[in-house]
Structures are given as structure tokens and as C-alpha cells.
Amino acid sequence: MPAADNLPLLPILITDPVLGESVVVGTEEYKVLHVKLSGVGPPPAVPPTVIACPFQGPTTDRSGTITAANTSQEVMAANAARKYLSIQNVSDKSLWFNFTVDAVLDQPSHELKPGDAFVMEGSFVSTEKITIISGFMGRAFTAKEG
Hints:
The protein is built from no helices and 13 strands. It is mostly beta strands.
């Protein structure tokens, strides 16, 4: 069976699979796309094989610019459903970002130098609020979450 949308397929064994529902394998979450039963009649001794793929879906654009120099601003609100996030510095000066609390122009915030990007996906994605700051007004960033 070919992968849906060119994503890799992962054959796994689970009990009572339901198409379209999520399953967790280790720390990764997958969506059940195909179920292959191992026979007709009473339930098989071995659970059915399930073909699953990583979550997929649209992203929401949170891109923008720094509205005031030296002032932390929110890029993304807390989002318990977030499975992906990315922030890229598309300006000519460093940007700093942080989780939950206001970003500052030093530690403990994370620095994004011009052209740098930060991505969270897969086994851990923060669901916390994300803030950003720069010492210069008008600096642009690209930000996406899904």
C-alpha cells in the first residue's frame, strides 16, 4: 500500500483499531489510515496490522514584526492542540524568544540570529505561550503552528 501524501507508512500492531483515530507508539502520535485483518471469522489470535502515519494538517501563520523595541510581545498563545511550531528570523538583527514568560534580550530566552530558525515537531512540542523580543522595532519573523 503506498504512503498517503507521500508520507512513510508504519505497520504496527494494536488491539481494536479505529480508522481516523490517534494511536501513540512510544512518544509519537499517529493517525490510523488502514487496517488489515489477518482473517475472517472470530477475532484473530494476533491483533490486526494497522498502517499509520504522522499527524498532518494545516498550519496557522503567526508571522509578524516587532511592534516596539525592547518590549516582549506574544507570537503564539498557549495551545493544547499544537503538534508543530516554527519560528524563523527573517530580519537583519537578532531576535530572542521564550516560552510562558516574557522574552528578554539575553538568557534564559533563546536567541535567533538573522536567518536562524527554531522548529518543534515529533515527540515533544511545547503547548505554552511563546513570546519574542528585539532591540529594534520593525524586525520581521516568520512563525507557524499546527
